[in-house]
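tool_call predict_complex ligand=D-xylitol-5-phosphate
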Amino acid sequence: AAPILIAPSILASNFARLGDEVRDVAEAGADWIHLDVMDGHFVPNISFGPAIIQSLRPYTKAVFDCHLMIAPADPYLEAFAKAGCDYITVHAEAGPHLHRSLQTIRALGKKAGVSLNPATPLSAIEQVIGDIDLILIMSVNPGFGGQKFIHSQVEKIAQARALIGDRPIALEVDGGVTVETAPLCTRAGANVLVAGSAVFKGEGVEAYRSTVSALRQA
Ligand code: DX5
Ligand code: ZN
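tool_result ok
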């Protein structure tokens, strides 16, 4: 089976020492660093933007997995590319021209992702399946860490795995992922797990290492 990648979300980390948190969680075995960007408009919360991501870039070589919960996204894609993001994921609900957003991300030399809110059907991305490198299934309503996993999304993960077929597309799940819910996601076909509060409830490299490996093994 393909390896399961763990992508801790630094949304749940200590913002007063973000650089150290990124370095520590990468040293603890995180495969990707998940960066939750929120604009107070597409979602009812505000987090951080490209300047902070750029200042975090020197702290690790780990893949920067940027989840844009912003609308519109297009005017900011270049800034996130220049900040050092490797994957840039936009929401299918964030604007009327998803295909254009995806093409822009790829033209910037980055991997293009699409995220779907819990209420959005998988059919929203059928027509752009050839233009994406990652599908991000939201298993909570985006905006906040620490929410409960929405079980109805497991079926959508399975549908996405079937849609992907043998295309080289990553299938990521975000929201409420714990050692209890992780196996539901991976059994349905997910290969990248985002975890915020589950990882950062502990503190320091050793605590992060034990949760990251527990998630990977779950
Ligand atoms: C939610 C974010 C998630 C969130 C996950 O809007 O996209 O990445 O930080 O946090 P947990 O793992 O605590 O649900
Ligand atoms: Zn996220």
